């Protein structure tokens, strides 16, 4: 995976930004962001459903499902959405960290522990390669996450309006 131009790189293999990107891309939660749109929405729906199992009893304890049906439904929907927001924040922070590491011309790394941090100036070809990875692979993922946040915000606003109307 690593090109010969990086063979003299002093950064440990697991701390090289391109390797960090490959590791993140293949990890179980973060790889969901790389799926096609239909599969991505399905994964978000699954996450929402799992969180709904937690939010449903809380909403039932807060609002009587028979007397305050609208509040019960809106409360359980909003409660489950909080879990989705937490997962999305984790995804966003992970992808943003990798984006920043790839975009930076200087890499901070640790040789053997937290006490001996070093920096390495990337050669121009490595900077160009890393920025291409960001442009074509990471920016679309971050845009997708931002659109998901925007969609959830619209749903929260719509839920708030409905809450006040009922």
From TrEMBL:
<dbReference type="Pfam" id="PF06799">
    <property type="entry name" value="CGLD27-like"/>
</dbReference>
<protein>
    <submittedName>
        <fullName>DUF1230 domain-containing protein</fullName>
    </submittedName>
</protein>
<feature type="transmembrane region" description="Helical">
    <location>
        <begin position="145"/>
        <end position="165"/>
    </location>
</feature>
<keyword id="KW-0812">Transmembrane</keyword>
<dbReference type="InterPro" id="IPR009631">
    <property type="entry name" value="CGLD27-like"/>
</dbReference>
<feature type="transmembrane region" description="Helical">
    <location>
        <begin position="72"/>
        <end position="93"/>
    </location>
</feature>
<keyword id="KW-0472">Membrane</keyword>
<feature type="transmembrane region" description="Helical">
    <location>
        <begin position="45"/>
        <end position="66"/>
    </location>
</feature>
<keyword id="KW-1133">Transmembrane helix</keyword>
